[in-house]
């Protein structure tokens, strides 16, 4: 039986709904044969692109697509990464559990769900998330290199599971690097504390909203990934100013933000209801200028997928 949204809308404007019907047909076909194989990915991506175009053109209402996604996901794909994103357990898609699941490539055990998670993890966006962990590690390597016994203080803003911190410290047990991690979600802090428990005082946690509180110790490196792309421009500038203020002279603020080049955007927005503020390099540069960064202190870099941009500001 077709999902409710299609039953209701189908007779009203059948042609307008063609991209949604096409997507539904394909999803049902793939569900029936145990999930998409890699040879089906391009077909899925094309159907999602057409659906995304119809939503952007105002031909299909976004709410109808989201209602459809909830319907088909709850009937057939419960337990997949897609269902977890859509479920918004902590109030929004992309919470620390999802990020942790992306880092560790979690895949459902049930045979009829496995291929859906493989499809999820094959996309550019989860690859970019995994790449940004490596990007942070490279930054830590370069900032800590040649400091001998001079400690490096790092502020990790919206630290989530802090798996990135854990992995780096495990690989660099002798380094004099101290992390202050701030996150607004109590469960994220609890999870991160467990992951970083072996490192004692080298990693401190603050359960706080970074828009209201930042530790003011003074840092050589301030890092934030997976937060600024949820912020409006106004809040972006407000928080960036605050991060610049706690960065020592000679130090660096590095902020991640998804770029407008994101091949997974339709999948994320339509099947995961995962909406971000995608920004171009020029937009990031303009926001940094607005926050008071001198033009020659700003640089925008990216990870190998080209999906996650990194705004660097030298102090
Ligand atoms: C997408 S996760 C990113 C986690 C981590 N930075 C990473 O890349 O692995 C976003 C995190 O931001 C936290 N967060 C969202 N808004 C926040 C705020 N205003 N203050 C502090 N943390 C916040 C969430 O609780 C969540 O853990």
UniProtKB/TrEMBL annotation:
InterPro entries membership: Methyltransf_25, SAM-dependent_MTases_sf
Residues in Methyltransferase domain copies: 154-251
Gene Ontology biological process terms, A to Z: methylation
GO molecular function: methyltransferase activity
Keyword NAD part of the UniProt annotation: no
UniProt keyword Transferase, yes or no: yes
Keywords: Methyltransferase, Transferase
Name recorded for this polypeptide: SAM-dependent methyltransferase
Organism (species): Prosthecobacter vanneervenii
């Amino acid at each position: 039986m077709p999902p409710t949204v299609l039953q209701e809308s189908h007779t009203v404007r059948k042609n307008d709904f063609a991209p949604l019907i096409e997507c539904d047909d394909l999803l049902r076909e793939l569900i029936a044969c145990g999930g998409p194989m890699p040879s089906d990915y391009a077909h899925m991506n094309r159907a999602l692109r057409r659906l995304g175009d119809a939503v952007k053109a105002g031909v299909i209402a976004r709410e109808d697509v989201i209602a459809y996604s909830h319907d088909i996901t709850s009937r057939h794909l419960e337990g997949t990464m897609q269902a977890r994103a859509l479920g918004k357990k902590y109030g929004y898609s992309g919470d620390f559990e999802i990020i942790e699941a992306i880092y560790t490539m979690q895949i459902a055990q049930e045979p009829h769900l496995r291929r859906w998670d493989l499809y999820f993890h094959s996309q550019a966006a989860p690859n970019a998330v995994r790449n940004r962990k490596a990007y942070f590690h490279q930054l830590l390597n370069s900032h800590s290199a040649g400091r001998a016994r001079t400690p490096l203080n790092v502020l990790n803003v919206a630290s989530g599971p802090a798996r990135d911190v854990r992995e780096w410290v495990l690989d660099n047990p002798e380094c004099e690097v101290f992390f202050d991690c701030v996150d607004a979600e109590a469960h994220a802090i609890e999870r991160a504390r467990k992951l970083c428990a072996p490192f004692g005082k080298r990693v401190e946690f603050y359960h706080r909203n970074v828009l209201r509180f930042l530790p003011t110790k003074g840092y050589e490196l301030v890092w934030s990934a997976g937060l600024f792309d949820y912020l409006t421009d106004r809040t972006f500038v407000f928080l960036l100013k605050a991060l610049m203020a706690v960065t020592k002279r000679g130090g660096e603020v590095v902020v991640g933000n998804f770029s407008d080049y994101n091949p997974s955007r339709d999948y994320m927005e339509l099947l995961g209801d995962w909406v971000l503020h995608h920004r171009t390099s020029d937009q990031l540069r303009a926001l940094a200028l607005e926050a008071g960064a001198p033009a020659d202190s700003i640089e925008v870099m990216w990870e190998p997928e080209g999906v996650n941009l990194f705004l660097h500001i030298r102090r």
